[in-house]
Amino acid sequence: MPDILESPEHVLSTLERDGSRRWLYPRVSPGWYWRARRVVGVLLIALFVLLPHWRVGGKPALLLDVLHRQFTFFGITFLPTDTLLLALLMVSVFLTVFLATALFGRVWCGWACPQTVYMEFVYRPLERLFDGAPGQSNRRSVVRQVAKYATYLAISAALAHTFLAYFVGVDRLKVWLTQSPLEHTGPFAVMAITTGLMMFDFCFFREQLCLVACPYGRFQSVLLDRGSLIVAYDRNRGEPRGKRGPSLPILPDQPQGACIDCGLCVRTCPTGIDIRDGLQMECVHCTQCVDACDEIMDRVGQPRGLIRYASQNEVEGKPTGRFRARLVVYPVLLLAAVGTLVGLIATRSPVDVTVLRGQGMPFSVTEEGTIQNGLRVKLVNRLDRPVMLRIRVTGTREPVEFDTQDTVVRLEVGGVATQPVLVTAPRSLFVTGRADARIVVSDDTGWERDVACRLLGP
Ligand code: SF4
Ligand code: SF4
Predict the structure, then answer these.
(1) What is the per-residue DSSP string for 291-318?
(2) Among the four 4, 108, 327, 392, which has the fewest Cβ within 10 Å?
């Protein structure tokens, strides 16, 4: 078999020159940002675990009940028929991400993304506990490996259960936990597959998820501009880089930048890149290189901040106060989307009423000479209790109630029904083949909603 041609340089930070996987075991740089991120990470893990247990107005704070097609966000339930509300919610989420990225770069990736939080503050610390710090391969005994993967499995199973609670609710999950898996094979299979996927991700796939699978990193180049805050290496201050120390004195005729080329910023990077090569898609803005370099600057007696949070303009010494259109456009659009969403939620009816025409003939004439129209009334119950609804049809000009057949409908919570309504109206009501009417829907509490409709006749 011919030898594989080796690339003259590293194409990807996670690939060796022969194309095999380059496994990354980044060194921890426990600086100020690391400690702050760990506090944020612990709080986020607590939030992730507790959110399904939190109730707002008797409902879960967050429940994505795909089975019953109901989505609850902080006490507000959205149904599949809420297309506009769901669309506005999605647009608001996207605009918030766009605005946060324009202001603070990939702050989500580095500080709040579950992949980063669990990888850096749960799985990697466990890995270091069982395997030792990077380079201590002598600690990788079989017993330690079995213990490590057993711990990973237990944590992944716990995570998978928490994840499932967002889709089925904690009450149903508690019941399942006390039953045999044979009594709920479907959910058990979902939980087992989710556990397997988490094991695959955190044990094997790891940084590849950020580098090749996550779409957010790919959009970085359009979401950021030169004024966005990023983790950046100050090239003007750092270059020309070079080793320095007692055995390597600074020569007066050779300019020397602040970077001593120690390589610590690369060894600590969880995606294996060199921040000194400039802004890269692989950078998740975890700030580990900032902490590493600050530690080195302290040691060599230089000011901190050779790698720091800064805009591209700032590190390149360009003016930073330029007007940025996206910082006006995003908030305006976000305000409009959130304002419309809040307005629609505040004014929405407890029961949706939509009137549709019946199928087939537009109308028919009875033996008595009255006109019959077939209509369909679509009803959606948004209340937290079942409702008994009555449908009446009235005229608009005269207080007349038209004859209709059985029109009492019971709707469960979140229930949707399309009720056929046969309306019989006097012929005298029709002018140029049309008559205006109102569909009135009421419940037993006195709530009432009426919708205009048009009857057809000769
Ligand atoms: S940690 Fe700082 S000094 Fe060391 S190589 Fe990176 S940028 Fe240069
Ligand atoms: S370059 Fe720095 S901020 Fe970016 S991923 Fe690597 S260590 Fe984190």
Answers:
(1) HHHHHHHHHHT--S-SEEEE-HHHHTT-
(2) 4
Same domain, 185 and 229: no
pTM listed for this prediction: 0.80
* Nearest residue (CA) to ligand 2, atom 8: 286
- Ligand 2: residue whose CA is nearest its atom 5: 283
Domain ends where: 215, 247, 282?
215
pLDDT digits (tens, 9 = 90+) for 34-87: 999 999 999 999 999 999 999 887 788 889 888 877 888 887 888 877 888 889
Asked whether residue 198 is assigned to any structural domain, the reply reads yes
pLDDT for position 184: 84
Cβ atoms of residues 163 and 194 within 8 Å: yes
A 10 A CB-CB count for 360 gives 7
**How far apart (Å, rounded) are the C-alpha atoms in residues 238 and 260?**
8
Helix (H, G, I), strand (E, B) or coil at 9: coil
Determine the Cα angle at 299 with ends 295 and 300, to 5°.
120
Structure token pair of residue 16: 């060796």
Tell me the best of 259, 273, 275, 277 to mutate to test the pocket of ligand 1, counting ligand atoms within 8 Å of each CB and taking the most: 259
pLDDT in tens, 266-325: 999 999 999 999 888 889 999 999 999 999 999 998 999 999 999 988 988 887 766 788
Is 68 inside any structural domain?
Answer: yes
Q: Give yes or no: residues 200 and 270 share one domain.
A: no
**265 alpha carbon – ligand 2 mean position (Å):** 8
Ligand 1 near 88 CB (within 6 A): no
Closest CA to 172 of 155, 190, 156, 154: 190
Q: Is residue 86 part of a domain?
A: no
The number of angstroms, rounded, from the C-alpha of 158 to the middle of its chain's C-alpha atoms is 20
Mark whether 175 and 301 lie in a shared domain: no
Single-letter amino acid, residue 81: T
Q: How far is CA 136 from CA 28, 38, 73, 148, in A?
A: 14, 24, 47, 15
Q: Can you give the residue range of the structural domain that contains 235?
A: 225-315
Distance from residue 301's CA to the centre of ligand 1 (Å): 13
Please check whether residue 88 lies inside any domain of the structure.
no
Q: Tokens at residue 78, please?
A: 């959205």
